[in-house]
Amino acid sequence: MIPALPDPTTLASAVSVRDRLALAQALNLLDDRRPAARQCAAAFLDALPVERLDAGGHLIGITGPPGAGKSSLTAALIQVWRRRGLKVAILAVDPSSPISGGALLGDRLRMHASGADREVFIRSLACRGEFGGLSAEVWPMSLAMLAAFDIVLVETVGVGQKEIDVSKMTDTTCFVAQPASGDSIQFLKAGIMEIPHVIVVNKEDIGMAARKTLSELKTTLGRRTDLDGWQAPALSASAALGSGIDTLADALDSHRNWLLERGQFTTRRQRCQAEWLVKHLREEFGRYGINRLGGEDALFAELTNAPRRSPIAAYEDLRTRVIPNP
Amino acid sequence: MTTPIKRDKPWLMRTYSGHSSAKASNELYRTNLSKGQTGLSVAFDLPTQTGYDSDHPLARGEVGKVGVPIGHIGDMETLFDQIPLGQMNTSMTINATAAWLLALYVAAAERQGASPAQLQGTTQNDILKEYLSRGTYIFPPQPSVRLITDIIAYTVKSIPKWNPTNICSYHLQEAGATPTQELAYALSTAIAILDAVRDSGQIGAEGFEQVVGRISFFVNAGIRFIEETCKMRAFGEMWDKLTQERYGVQSEDMRRFRYGVQVNSLGLTEAQPENNVQRIVLEMLGVSLSKRARARAIQLPAWNEALGLPRPWDQQWALRMQQVLTFETDLLEYGDIFDGSPVIAAKVKALVDGATEEMARVQEQGGMVQAIESGYVKRQLVTSHTERMRAIEHGSLKIIGLNCYTETEQSPLTGGVDSGIMKVDPRAEREQIERLNAFRAQRNHAEVKAALANLAETARSGANIMPASILCAHAGVTTGEWSQTLRDIFGEYRAPTGIDIPANDDSRGAKAVSIRTAVIKTSEELGRPLRLLIGKPGLDGHSNGAEQIAVKGRDVGFEIVYEGIRLTPEQIAKAALEEGVHLIGLSVLSGSHVEMVEDVFNQLSQVGLKNLPVVIGGIIPESDAKLLKERGISAVYTPKDIDMNGIMVDILNLIRKAHDLQPVTVA
Ligand code: B12
Ligand SMILES: Nc1nc2c(ncn2[C@@H]2O[C@H](COP(=O)(O)OP(=O)(O)OP(=O)(O)O)[C@@H](O)[C@H]2O)c(=O)[nH]1
Ligand SMILES: [Mg+2]
Fold first, then answer.
1. How much is the average pLDDT of B387-414?
2. Contact B219, B287 (CB under 8 A)
3. Interchain pair B529, A126: CB under 8 A
4. A33–B571: do the CB atoms touch at under 8 Å?
């Protein structure tokens, strides 16, 4: 039989108590493109505990060039977080084949260290050609995971050096720099790349090249802060040796505290959803879609002031406003 | 009266063997020697190779199966009972735990009254190729290189007749490598190891020539035996040049390329298995015809290679092939019959040029270790193997009995109660565990503890690991304890899978497109992209099949989760759940399929996925295939199933069936 749709409320309460099978089913549901499933998914998201979605857990994005060590660092971070008693969920995005649409989901391999731990949940996603190193499902899936886990980490596809789209859809973004590749520094200097919240040079075990990259990054960042006034630390670590990982975890946590202290945490989450909606719209309809709804600024203003809703329901509304008579 | 003709001395003749227990293997070795075999080649079981005691959960189903379990000095002594180690020449196919097995060998010899200086033999000890093909690595590359280095430094000083490492291109060919790739990667490995020995400071400049002189190789010989002859000559030339130019070795003797061989097994078929005999004999020619590039030691697989483990009679047949070639033919009466041939010279040059280029590419990336860590080399191998598989599928690479001339009479060889293969007594595992427990009970625990503490200290300090390991051997430390001590210090590693290669032209072909269309249609019916988990449970390192299925699956539009070798059934079930897969495909070639399937099913029901369809592929005898299906496996594939497109359609239809959808036919 075609998979029957679950009861959204029951599913939501099972997910909130970290029922692993329920979470797996929920993620399957959020991936399901059939219209009935979309409705069910919207209802499921609406049934998740609001306080968790608005202010619970910590949603972290990890990004950087291919092979920089995003997955390896994630594996190392998982161990640190587990030692601190935190429960961790991961969404790992991998590229899809431009020819077949199929995909090899390989990040899990590097996260194997957490192989049998039931308080760690890893779901891979193919980026399916959309969303600059992410996938449209990432935001709704992050919400489902936030309902149950202390840390939710999104690993992007190894993107070009300047795209850090993930930073718009997470509380905190960590950029992993590859030693001896000056590109990210150039992009930062030129202001092409947005400033991530934490920058880490991985592979410090290889020595000189890593130290040099770190000191260049430090100089480049200087005393610059991001728009909100947060000053991004530049760190170094080695996923291979497990060095610098505690400090990295601390740095990520400081950014969360910083948001909380300033009372910006929940606003940022809501902003994330607005970003996701606009990005999704742009993917589907291009500039036309945005203009139909009054242009980007107006749209953001509208979305950030609107009462909270599940992203799927909100998106369906926007869609019908773009194409009123489908 | 004719004067007797002067013949060259025959090479060492070995049979790669070992099974069930040290005692059973000892009997087998003594019979083999009495049949005219001139050296021993020990096959260890997978727990021994990956550093687990027989009672470790990961060892379940694998104890004594594909080799002999050696858990401690007691086993080692039994293995060589009545075989004087001072006179024997023993080759041990051992890598991650090579330092340990060598330590046990030295300790056992000492107890026989032989001194280390008398010992002759080989430890394979090439851990780098384990990451690329063979799969029995444990630690990350850096500490692995250190262990290799320690064995070399120790043996050159204390066991001067030992071959401390056998740099392997054999396994690369078995993972799909072309002759050029074999040359390039084996020699790049040699560079990585020799550089490490030089830089370790354990050997002074005077001793270094000695080190180079002790390096030997373990090579493969495929069915294209002229090209293989040329490959061997190319190896000799390149090694001579490399050792002279890079390491300044003066003595010609020390620069000689010395190698042993096992001929190709990848091309040996399950279909019409008797044809494998011709293949094996022809392959042997590739490493024996040219005197200048002749092997020092040869071991041959048996005709039933692709069916399962060989019985003593099968191994005897393989040994007799060597004996016929050396004693009946006139091969050993001539000098090199290829010297002066322009055809051979041109082919050798082409191989040397190709390999030199590829070696430069590896060096550009920082050397072999870096090129392995980045996944580069593994991707090259997977790419070559994918091309080979496509060529077999299309028929452009002809394999008699498999993709052409398939009509056949019933083979009398596979009849009989044993269906023509050896089956290890399932009691072997339990008995081995009993012996292990008895051994543990009688040793001096304080001494064991002290020996392990000393080992840990040595591992941390960077001093040579061998003396501390030999102490452990005498103290009664077990294989699992030695390995765990080092695991705690060095950490564990997972090698790149190499499957992230670009799609080849085949995936644009009509067949692939129509399968893809059907896959996409089913995705739409089920609501989301179809996902497969390709899982390798247990200690089995045979990854070729899993890799090929994974790449093919992606190319026809599936999303593939593949985490490489050596997963526990629990990890497989966990991944299946978390990833929301539609089907699990297991791949098991080591013979532990019955236990693995049972465990995977148990774990799946525990996570609530009892109804997920599961298929399996690998070396699975027909009787077991039937059994597995009765236990709920949806389909079983073996080496004769070369139609990869057909397999993909099957898988698609199994997913459809699990959701009550009608099967599709794909033109
Ligand atoms: C190549 C090979 C190796 C290579 C492996 C390289 C690699 N990375 O894979 C090397 C040289 C390293 C190797 C080593 C060993 N090998 Co080996 N090896 C073989 C050999 C010759 C071919 C296997 C192969 O790769 N075939 C090509 C692939 C594409 O075919 P395949 O895996 O069968 O897959 C096909 C189908 O079975 C099916 N399939 C397979 N998996 C899956 C999964 C799914 C989901 C699906 C749908 C289909 C499917 O589809 C594929 C397409 O046709 C076989 C004998 C033979 N001729 O079959 C022995 C064989 C498997 N090896 C054997 C042994 C014992 C070993 C060792 C354990 C020896 C030892 N004691 O050390 C070692 C250790 C390896 C380890 N770590 O586990 C035995 C196993 C005995 C048994 N089962 O009873 C065999 C049968 C040889 C023998 N007769 O002794 N080996
Ligand atoms: N020397 C060293 N190598 C590392 C370290 N971390 C990761 N690597 C290696 O770098 C390679 C890439 O690591 P991954 O963790 O897969 O990198 P990634 O950024 O997730 O890669 P993609 O997801 O493919 O973009 C692997 O070969 C790792 O073994 C480190 O700290 N030191
Ligand atoms: Mg990654």
1. 94
2. yes
3. yes
4. no
